[in-house]
């Protein structure tokens, strides 16, 4: 992971994050000053950022919001204080309301991003300075250390490019914490088709089958927010296993990039998971990122032990074949 250290200093009123990358300083500067690239990593998993304005001039402002998995929106604004490309960038970072006005009830801090060359690439040092110990304690309690770490750890795939980051690696599963797992798979095909393949029953029935020897016997999908879905699978003749299925509800839908659903094993009292699907396209290929939130670590480990990753890889490999014929 790129982030090598995060420290807070109650006396200096600072939080300092350090991360190392194989990309040059100029490339780091580019991603931090291009809002479309910033959006791909600035929000932590489950809370992607959308920049609605970006005036990269001293005294200019940038506005962005992070959207949670249930549609919650958190607004913020930057005022650019110092711009010294490609070496450093300083902003006044404030929580904001939906109109971009600074919230006086929340801390405002000064964030300085410094980019330095290293033998293997470049180092980012982000220093956030607060006005009081209480303000520092407040944002730490809100999860700023964890959120910043997870956000910056997503930067590799933006710097490398999606093909270099994920091509040929198959389905990758990462345990992020006790309740969150991130699954990634690069699919050869445009984002619009990959989105349709996750929404349209006639396409879902062709690829979301898991290991060979199973068929999808029920595929009912209402992809609108508040709509429900139900999938069932059964073994074909000669395959061992019992019929099973999942059902759930769509909580968020932002075509063709993001869909958040609940997932519950039909006919059981097992708790539901929260599945946050994100799609990114680059050079004709689409990276699928699925963030799964489990109710607890025990459920997480039980599901992973079923061979879920292998089953998903079989399905995703099948999906590429389906897209090639659409």
UniProtKB/TrEMBL annotation:
It holds the Pfam family AHSA1. Residues 23-159, 190-323 form the Activator of Hsp90 ATPase homologue 1/2-like C-terminal domain. Belongs to the AHA1 family. This is Activator of Hsp90 ATPase homologue 1/2-like C-terminal domain-containing protein. The lineage of its organism: Bacteria, Bacillati, Actinomycetota, Actinomycetes, Micrococcales.
